[in-house]
Write a structure and sequence with these properties.
With about 475 residues, this protein is α/β, with parallel strands linked by helices. The chain is about 35% helix and about 15% strand. The strands form 3 sheets. Strands 2-3-4-1-5-6-7 form a 7-stranded mixed sheet, with helices on both faces. A 3-stranded antiparallel sheet has the order 8-9-12, with no helix packed on it. A two-stranded antiparallel ribbon has the order 10-11. A hairpin with an 8-residue loop joins β3 and β4.
Length: about 475
């Protein structure tokens, strides 16, 4: 009964919050844009580049409001939520430039930034000046998989997590944790030392999944790998258990303690994220490092496909009506973007996009069925290379030219971080289905990590805008209709 009353109270508060947001949006239009992606997908770079081009009013051909000269100005405005960290845009932009010329640190927590855009409406029955606030919510993609825990019991989660850990490709890295689990009787009194040891071994397993060939974290809890202020708290110190079907926890047993902490994680970590941030999003971009998965082989590609499906299941996607805007607002546009397109010659960009479309096909059809618009594209938020051709015997191969970071290696060649190199990255298969059958041998593609581009000031000392690939197309899809 207490749970029902609490849920009803939360629902009432959510409706009041949504009603307030709806009324505020009618007076001062805004759009909340979620930026996420699994590890190493380039979230921080994307958000930095997006803000850079908006406030710089950079001419962008596919972004119509920009191409038509209708954006009068865009500025960084007051933080939309005072209790949420500000996205450190200025720091990240400085990191990309001289003298550092390095990529910003990865996203490990939620952060926000508001860009206020003054623009001219397009010709029609609505003309004249208008404004739009774009609230950018940057958050780790690993947090998305946690949303599946909201309605899942500890026993269900334990059973599913253990079943996945016993799969052939995971059993070896889970072995130390499995050995420790086998020595524990879930119904015996709990020892804090024993609980901490199981939790540490479980975290080591999750970390190994992240660093292994899969390179993505699809097993919740996502916050275990980026705990922030919660590090060491009971809500982040638990583990699945090997439970007998239908087993009820004995008082103060290992089972009872683990279940209590799991419930605390759902209550104090997962639900607040959903309620305060995720459920308030209007538009969403999911950045995907497809190239790393391709270079790691078919198993990694299959893991990425499953991860992307889980990500979109977490979204409350669909078309909005007046009623849904008040009761349960939906994300009405989702963009999946394959990042690091500058690591390929443009002749392979369409193939990269086709592979991404294949990976999200199930999720794409499901979301479109709910009335949301879903698109895919290949982009480089900040372009670190340019294109060229190289001779190999009698053949001319499409190549990319950039400055690999110090310590990067291709074959016997070790790069010093200062010297440019022309590299043939390899070719993607014409048939996207072939990536599941080993068409790309692990390690066959050449994707060194390049330094950010060198930008040379003009005669007046002004730096040119950050180069990109299809960032304008992404902006047009995500917010273009709100600037018409």
């Amino acid at each position: 009964m207490a749970v029902t009353v609490t849920s009803s109270f939360d629902s009432a508060l959510d409706m009041l919050r949504n009603l307030g947001a709806f009324a505020a949006n009618a007076v001062a239009p805004r759009v909340r844009l979620g930026v996420t992606g699994l590890s190493r997908s380039g979230k921080t770079v994307f958000t930095t580049a997006l803000v850079h081009h908006l406030i710089g009013v950079t001419p962008m051909p596919v972004f119509r409001a920009s191409a038509e000269g209708r954006i009068r100005r865009a500025i960084l405005d007051d933080q939309p939520d005072d209790a949420v960290p500000r996205f450190p845009y200025e720091e990240h932009l400085a990191t990309l430039g001289e003298p550092l010329r390095r990529w910003p640190e990865s996203t490990t927590r939620i952060a926000e930034l508001r860009v206020a855009i003054d623009y001219e409406r397009r010709a029609g029955w609505r003309t004249g000046p208008a404004s739009l606030a774009v609230d950018i919510v940057d958050y780790p993609g690993e947090w998305l998989v946690d949303l599946a825990l909201i309605d899942k019991s500890f026993a269900e989660w334990s059973r599913e997590t253990l079943a996945m850990s016993r799969a052939e490709d995971r059993a070896m890295i889970a072995a130390p944790w499995h050995v420790a689990l086998a020595a524990v009787d879930p119904q015996k009194p709990a020892s804090e030392t024993e609980i901490a040891r199981l939790a540490d071994l479980f975290k080591a397993y999750l970390s190994a999944l992240r660093e292994g060939p899969e390179r993505v974290a699809t097993t919740p809890p996502g916050r275990f790998l980026m705990p922030g202020d919660l590090a060491g708290s009971p809500a982040l110190t638990f583990s699945p258990l090997d439970l007998a079907p239908g087993a009820a926890p004995a008082p103060r047993s290992v089972h009872a303690q683990m279940e209590r902490r799991y419930d605390a994680y759902r209550t104090h970590v997962v639900r607040p994220f959903f309620r305060d941030h995720f459920a308030q999003l209007d538009r969403q971009i999911v950045l995907v490092d497809v190239l790393s998965a391709l270079d790691s082989g078919p198993r990694a590609v299959a893991e990425l496909e499953e991860a992307l499906d889980q990500v979109l299941i977490a979204f409350r996607a669909g078309s909005n009506t007046l009623l849904s805007s008040l009761v349960a607002p939906r994300i009405d546009k989702v963009l999946f973007a394959a990042t690091k397109a500058d690591h390929l010659h443009r002749s392979d960009h369409a193939r990269l996009e086709a592979i991404l479309r294949l990976l999200v096909d199930r999720a794409l059809r499901r979301t479109r069925g709910a009335g949301a618009r879903v698109e895919t594209l290949a982009l480089a938020s900040v372009r670190a290379t340019r294109e060229a051709s190289v001779r190999s015997g009698r053949d001319t191969l499409p190549a990319i030219v950039g400055t690999p970071e110090a310590g990067e290696r291709i074959g016997d060649e070790l790069f010093d971080g200062q010297t440019e190199a022309a590299i043939f990255p390899g070719e993607l298969p014409e048939d996207p289905q072939a990536v599941f059958s080993g068409a790309i041998t692990p390690g066959a593609l050449r994707f060194p990590r390049f330094r950010p581009p060198l930008r040379i000031p003009d005669a007046a000392g002004r730096l040119p805008p950050l180069p990109h690939i299809r960032l304008d197309r992404a902006l047009e899809f995500l917010i273009g209709d709100r600037l018409s």
